[in-house]
Structure formats: C-alpha cells, structure tokens
Amino acid sequence: MDTPDYGTAWGDSTRASSRPASHKSGSSHTARSHTDRDPDEVSPLLASPEGDESEHEDDDDEHATATTSLLQSLSGGSTSGKDDKTPFWKKRWPSIVALVVLFIAVALIMLGFLATEGIEEYALQAADFKPTKLSLDSLTDTGVRVQVEGDFSMDASKVQKKSVRNLGRLGTWIAREVETGATEVDVYLPEYDMVRVGTARVPGIKVNIRNGHTTHVSFFAHLEPGRFDNLRNVANDWMDGRLGQIRLKGKADIPLRSGLIRLGSQTISESFTFQGDKLPSVPRYNITKLNLREQRPGRKGMGADVSIMVTNDFPVQLTIPPVAVDVLVDGCLESDRHIMVGTAETAQLQVEPKHDVEVNVTGRVETLSQALTETCPGSSKSPLDALLGNYMHGQEAKLYVNCCNFPDPDTPAWAHDLLKDITVPVPLPGHEMGKLIKNFSLADVHFHLPDPFAEPGTPEAAPKISAVVKVDINIPNEMNFPLDVNRVKADADIFYHGKLLGTLDLKKWQDANSTRIDAHGSDGPSLLVQSDIQKAPINIKDDDLFSEVVQELIFGSKGVLMKVKAAVSVKVDTPIGGFAVREIPAEGVVPVKPIGHGNGNGGGGAHNTSALAPKIGNLSIINTSRTSITLQANVNITNPTNYSATVPYFNINILVNKTVVGQAVAKDIYVHPGNNTNLPVTAVWDPYTHSGAKGKEIGRQLLSQYISGYNVSLTLQAHNGTIPSQPALGAVLAQFPITLAAPHLSTPKDPDQLPPDEGDPPDDGKTHFIRSATMHLITSTALFTLASPFSSTTMYITTLNATAFYDGHPSGKILYELPFAVPPGLSETPRLPVDWSIGSVGYDAIRKALGGTLRLSAFADVGIRIGAWKETVWYKGGSIGASVRL
C-alpha cells in the first residue's frame, strides 16, 4: 500500500467532487467508478444511519474547539515574517495525532475490503488510497471529530506475481464493490513498548474494487487519544531532536460484505513509517503590533498587547476557544527549572480555510521573581541579563510557552490534560540594538594623576577621570510605561583614528538620574541619563598613539576627536520592579580641545606655550648644599581647556641648552579651567649633580646672564620618573619639552636713591642687580644699591672684581675680597675702594659730573654664597645711574 501524500492532501482546500457512476445502467451501488459514472447522478458515500449522525455532528461544529491553531498563535513570532523553523510537531501535536491515527484507520479499512483468503496478497499490493482532505472538525468531550476525503482505487499493475494479479482481477471483478461496517482502529508505537496512540471510530464505507476504478470517499470519524503521559514522552523526544522518524502500527477488526453476501470480519495489522521532513511546516507569522504598557491604574505590573498575522495555507476551519499560557525563560543552568515571567491570553478565534488569521494576544507581568534577577553563581549576569543581552546583541534568545489553561468552561477537560505539561520553546530572533543609544558623552571632565607611590601596573597606578557621563537612550515607540534609571556603569574603549588608545573602567555602579524627553519632529522619545563618575581608571594601551594625541593637544589648533565604544549597563525602576539591563552597546564622539596653538614644528624640540601664560613669583630659597639650591615659588598659569586635573606628584627636569641643571616638583595641586594662581612649586638647582662639570659651567653662565638682565629661558621636560607609578606616561610626555622665559624678579624701587632730575630708567622687563651707585672722588670709594632677587634669603658677595665704564672707556676698578651681605630687597654695599683710571676719558667724565649724575656701565666677576652653596658669576650691567660726590 502506498504511503499517503500528506502534502497534497493538506494543501487541497476544496472538497473533491468526483462521484462514482454505475458500471451498468440502473445500478444502485452507493460508490461507483469514474469510468461508469452518470454525470447527473449523485450517490451518497456513507450508509444513511452514519450519514444522519454526521449531519447532527456538523450542527455542533460552531461550538467545537481545537488546540492546533492555538499553539500556532501563541508560540512566538517574528517581525521579519520569515518561516519559523520550529518543528510542526511542537505546535500541532493534537492534529498530528488525530490525522495520523485517522490515516492508518482508513488504510486498514481499505485493505480489509480485499483481505479475503484468496486475494489478500493482491489487495496488499494493488490497493491505493490518496487523501484529498484531512481536517479537524471539532473537539468533543472525549476526543476530536475529523473529516476525511480521499480517492480509493485498485491498480493491478503494482502486483508482482502474475498468478496473484490475474486471480485478484477476477475476484474483484466478480465482487465489484465491498462495504465495511463501523470499525474501531487502534494505533500503537512499536518503539515505545506498544504505547497506544489512540483509537479511531470510523463509519461504514462502500468502494468499487475493480481494477482502474476510483471511488471518492468522504466521512467523519471520531478519534480518542491514548494515555497522555505516554504521548507527551513522544512529543518531548520530537522536540528534543531525538525522533528522526516515527513508526505507527494499526490494528482493526473490519466487518465486510459484498452486496447481500456477508464476508465476516477480517483482522488487519499494518505498520507505517513517517519521516520528520514529510510533515507540514509551521505557518509563517508576522508581528504587526506591539505595545508595552503599564497595568491599569492602581494595579502593579506591566501589560503587553500583541497582534500577530498568521499565514494560513491549510484547508482548516476551526473555532479556537480562549486560551492562557505561561511564559518562561531559562534558568542559570540548562538543568535548572524554567523561570516564569508572566502569562499570555488570547480571545476566541475563528479560522477559515486558506484565510490569514489575526491573533490578538494580551500579556501580563505582575512582578519579577528573585530567581530571574539574581546573579548566577560564578557569573556577573542573571537569567534576565542573559535573555536581554542575547536579544540586544542580535543573537537568538529563547522563551518557553507552557500550555495551557482554557478559561471557557465548555472546552473539553481532556484538552487541558493532554497539553498541560507541554512546554514549547519559542525562538526570539535577536534585534541589534546598536542604535538604542543616541549619544554617549563626557562633560565636566577632571583628570587625576596617579598616586606617586603606587606600584606600576596596579589599578592605583593608573590615571583616573571624574566626569559627568551623559547617555541619551532611544525609547522604542512600543514602550509606553514609566521608566527611571537610577544607576549606571560602563566599560568603554577609547579610539583615536580607528586605533585603540585605551580603556575607561567604569565597572563600579554609579548613582544616576534620568529625564524623559518627548518625541519631536522625526525624533522619537528618549531618556537622558546623567551620572557623576568619580576617579574611573584610564588604562593606556598604545603609548605611541597616546604620544600622538598629546602632541596634537599641545601643539595643534583643532583639538582631537576621540571615539568611545562602550557597553553600558543601567539599573531601572519599572512598574514591575527594579532590575538591571546590562551591556547595552553604545558609541559616541568626545571632542577634546587643544591646550594652545602650536608653532607647527611637531615634537622633538622645545616649544613655547603662550596659551598657558606661565608666571613665577615669590621666589625664595628654602635649602642649600655645596652644589645645590632648593627654591620655592608660586606659579600662575592659564588652563585654556574645559578640563581640570588633580596632581598628587609631578617631577620635571629643568634644562638649559639641552643640559639638565635641576628639577621642579609639584605636589597636591589642583588645576581648573581658566586662570590658576599661586600654585606652589619646588625647584632644585643642582647642575653639577645632574650634568657634572659641563652642567656646572652652563649653570654658571645662565646665572651670570640672568643677574645681568639678559633674556634667558629654561626648558621643562618630563622623564620616566615624572610620574613614578606611570613611567610609560612620563616617557610619552618627555617628547614634548616646554620652554619658558626665566621669571622677571622685580623688587621695590627707592626713589630717594636717584636725583629727581634723573629718576629711574624706564622698566625694561629685565632683572637689574645693581640699581644705582654713588662715587666719592676724595676717598676714592664707591657705594652701590643692590636689588636682591630673593624675597627672604640673604645672599653674600664673597669677592668682587669690577670695572666701571663710561661710553666704553674705563673709569675705575674695584677689587674687594671681604664678604658682605645682600639682604632681601634693596640694600647698600659697604664703601668699596676704587682705583681710578686717571687720565682716561672715563675718569674725566666722572670728574666733570661732580655734584651731578651720569650713566655708567660695569663688568664684574662676583663670588656669591648662599648658605652652603658657592658660585662665581660674572655681571655685566649697563645704564647704572651714578651720583658723583667729593
């Protein structure tokens, strides 16, 4: 016997209309062959008692229910509209059982027509039944009422033995027609210890059994399922992928008669094997509406309204009763019990053959259980995190539908008993959420340099950042319920020119607040989340790239744009309670303003930073040694950026002509945008220790030029020890030395030191060590007014070898080897002996200025001592106002 073509039968939406005709004129058979049919004759296919019963059952069709389309409606959907790959068995279990059982019943009956002793082999090989319609009619108190239509024929050419073929053709020509009585067919599963699938009660059927004749058959049958727990075991094997095929065995005692001759009962037993890929596929479906809302006022929880359009290519007419299911998700482990999320309900549905079905589903979530939101052991995520994370990253998530409750009391109890433990997995196609966050930015940025005593490579040794994190989150139009974000954290990667610069570690939860922004124009609603983060570590991953960024900030004019890619996690309060949504992908661009306009020559040299406008004041010496002077000063700078910084420790070299002559150290200072005044800085002047004899000579020349009023400059350059806990950062900053002019140290002026007619020379912005002089001709002495560059330290001049000049001509010479003090501010020297250059032009000019003043210049070698430190410098001064007295 041929295996029925279910694809053909299921796809036929029209009841076959062929009617068997009489082989001879005046024949009264109820089922006749096509070849002998009278075109105007209509013959019943069933005996009248059964036919009356069928008509009575048809009247109840409007009140019947079925579970088939119910699972199809509630088992999930896709916004894509593509075919669902979920096995047909999972969602149409009752209909499959019913139709398979019915098919076996029909096949056995057809064999029973011919299973007399003489022609049994002929019957088994020649009989052919092709169903043209298999549909569920209704649910009854004990099972399912189904309708079957099909074509039965005998094909002798399929019989292999000639003798059997000839005998069979003769016997069936004589018998002409065979009629069965009402029959019960039991169907079993041999591989499951002969578990009974169900029983089919089939009415009597009459068919033409002559070779080549086709009889169209149409009847209603009643199917009763077997034990539900056994059937659920089979269903679970199918859903778990352990059932590649299924073999069914049918048994029936079939009463037969031909015309007026009763042929007795025949016991028929036959097996049929069905491959999984031969079953019909699940209909396509598309979510046309989704609305997430708050529950009715006064009730806690959230509701969901979903409309699903299901494509119905089947010739099925059903009335599906209202149904409710539980919606569940996976636990932490595959072995854990599923966790309930909420419930879903549908109203009564009317399904018409080959008409698309609109299914309206109402969901409800009262609260979130602790098992759903609690972090799994050995993980940082909860089951809810895993579900939402897979969905938002475009990966397939999975829900489970646990069936079923039937609110309608008229629904048969057996339907609930059969389906109550069936849990159907529903794939939830992922939805990439890359555009969920409109913008990710940082404001009010504050940098923290690391603890100088931290161990390199530890979190304490990383620079840190404090800022206001702003996250603008798109709210889908479907989300119509109150939503408040109260905490936020993120892991952010920072990119420059497409390369990874470093990471921003915001792994600790930070307090946050959110503001809903209503839709305007083409922009939908959004949620602006702000959080003040404190001391989040920055881990530099590419030192060369960081060097490029720093160079652009210091010497560029346009600043830099850094791209931030972050996985943002938020804790939200909703009508169903609070929970965390973790690792939402976000992107943003953070502009960083330049520190100042560069001179365009890149790195590798000393550069002016006019935008910083550094100024040094209140210089004082706090310690000395044989080779060093430790100075303290207040520094004023301008921070042209919008960023502030805290500096616990910063050490930088002081260079002159690329030679290290000292170091400056800043501790515990705070730099804010704009003007920053009186920042305390300590500097150690020690050329010999840092650079040996060469350094000592360079330092001596610099001091000489400085006290002589020359324009001198110093270079500040970072080094590996600039930030001890971050040697790599110091090495990067070392590529960008900064050159600034030595500070102009002014001291109070004494107007009494110069005659009114001369006054002080205009302030030229230079340091003048010798402010004025008084020459005494008779005693051959000179008295000088000195301006100390220090505010609280007394300096000593140990030796003095000086020559005074007038208009380039020597006037006199001073050689003095007794030390004298130079206190802070303005002071006078002792009377110093002068050896006049008598007869020279310079001396004559002094003589002529007796009682008046003149301008002299001087050059001197001066021995200096400050504490334990000693040095010999030269001094060259011009335009010294000198008074000449007797």
Automatic annotation (TrEMBL):
Ranges where the Tag1 C-terminal domain occurs: 479-593
User: Which positions fall inside the Tag1-like fifth Ig-like domain?
Assistant: 763-874
Q: Quote the Pfam families the UniProt record gives.
A: LEA-2_1, LEA-2_4, LEA-2L_5, Tag1_C
Stretches for region Disordered: 1-85, 745-765
* Cellular component terms per the entry's GO annotation: fungal-type vacuole membrane
List, for all copies, the residue spans of the domain called Tag1-like fourth Ig-like.
613-729
Q: Where is the composition biased (Acidic residues)?
A: 50-62
For this UniProt record, give its keywords in alphabetical order, as a comma-separated list: Membrane, Transmembrane, Transmembrane helix
Where do transmembrane segments lie in this chain? 95-115
Q: Which residue windows does the record flag with biased composition (Polar residues)?
A: 14-30
- The biased composition feature labelled Low complexity covers 67-77
What PANTHER family is this protein classified in?
CHROMOSOME 16, WHOLE GENOME SHOTGUN SEQUENCE (PTHR35895), PRE-RRNA PROCESSING PROTEIN (PTHR35895:SF3)
The molecule here is called Pre-rRNA processing protein
